[in-house]
Amino acid sequence: MTVNTEPQALISHLPKADGSATFSYxxxxxxxxxxxxxxxxxxxxxxEEAAVDVIVRPAAGVGGTRERHLESLIQSTLRQIILVxxxxxxxxxxxxxxxxxxxxxYVNAKITQASSNLPILPALxxxxxxxxxSSTLPLTATLTSTALAIVPDQGGSxxxxxxxxxxxxxxxxxxxFAFTSHNELILAESEGSFTMKEWDDVxxxxxxxxxxxxxxxxxxxxxxxxQRSAGSDLRHFTRSTMEQKIVSDLYWK
Amino acid sequence: MPRxxxxxxxxxxxxxxxxxxGLRIDGRALDQFRELDLKFGDQYGVADxxxxxxxxxxxxxxxxTTPYTDRPFDGIFTITTELSPMASPSFEVNRPTETEIxxxxxxxxxxxxxxxxxxxxxxxxxxxxxxSIRVDLHVLSHDGNLIDASCLAVVAALRHFRKPDTSxxxxxxxxxxxAEREPVPLSWLHSPLCVTFSFFGEEADIxxxxxxxxxxxxxxxxxxxxxxxxxxxxxxxxxxxxTVEAMTLIKCANDALDKVKELTTWLDLKxxxxxxxxxxxxxxxxxxxxxxx
Lengths: 253, 293
Description:
- The structure holds 2 protein chains of 2 kinds.
- By secondary structure, chain A is of the alpha+beta class.
- Chain A contains 6 helices and 9 strands; from the N terminus they run ββββαβαββαββααα.
- The mean pLDDT of chain B is 91.
């Protein structure tokens, strides 16, 4: 199976939802939809702010505890960046449908418990952001997210960006980071065993990946090219996708 | 949760009057389907079907389990449908609506009970091990005629699907991973497809194929019939609503058969196209460890 290294996105393609996006990157494809602000059920209503409801649905099988865990992580992240105080007593619904997740060719998968967990989190977050932008809900910032694994390599260890299913399986520890567009850390999740030093290294790598220097100065070109080769610059990707969308929407003007 | 918005009185009168004059609001003929498109994923058993603005995503997966004790020679085959709020905010998670129940019921009758998939071929060791094939159907956007579109998506996904190859030597059963051996297709017997007719007018005398959401909200009754390309009826359902003349239903059945033949040819063509796309360099035949039947 070929894995696309360049991120791809399709914005506002579902006719019924208020905002929608399809995002594919590093072997994952997720369709996201946002409805909101809509009427909220009495028991979920918050008097001072909008309730954010995240639904993660696996491609095969019914969602279980792993999906609930992912939902709670995404919900607490999105709540920070959506201006929830602008819409008291309403609901903002984010639905994330996983379409493709990379499969490990060396193992026959089980379906009773859908096997999506942390590695899919960056794709889900990125789709959620694009869907929210598509629904034109006011946000304080956008975010970029990345996944890294520490894979043992000939005595030492190696930090792998956007690891494959097989690399995740072999890794000592696995980390997911998300940064806002103001270069602030908003989400850090890790699993496996690692030292504080390793975490610092991974954090530095994730920071350089998610928070690249602005493209304004020309003499930085060489350095930017260096980072480009390590992985795609998702922040500029989000920005250019939205710019393209707006240009095509305003074409009639 | 918000209710689905009902069409206004003006809209209602306009659509119904236009239909009485033999016109549809989107300019189609009464028996014309919207534009169909089908995409297969990189993995086996993934189908993404678009019918106008309706979009359905079907994924097939297989795993080894123990068969039911009362049916030791049969494998397990299930179709799951769940409408998420992605299709419309009026659908709630974990609370099936009538549309959803009707949809899963019809698919069950059409695909499962017509024995389209030979469940006996899914048996590995009788009473101990069998394949469990599961189809997950996700409605990404809902603009009418979910039943026909879903049925087509399910059949397409199942025909596209490959399950891991197995071999039995004496007492040991080996299941090969995709890296070891090329997966094998399911034992598929026939392709049943649904066609839904919507009826309009006091006497239910205006017959429309492939109704969109607005037309579905205004119809007086509907009739779903399933055929395979050999002309065998797999299922027929007319659930309540205004009574329809028997002759009209017979005419519908004839039209449905023509449509099913057309759709089957189209589906065969799409599957051939996809297998050509995968078969780069013509090595697929050599990779296969399957015997000619």
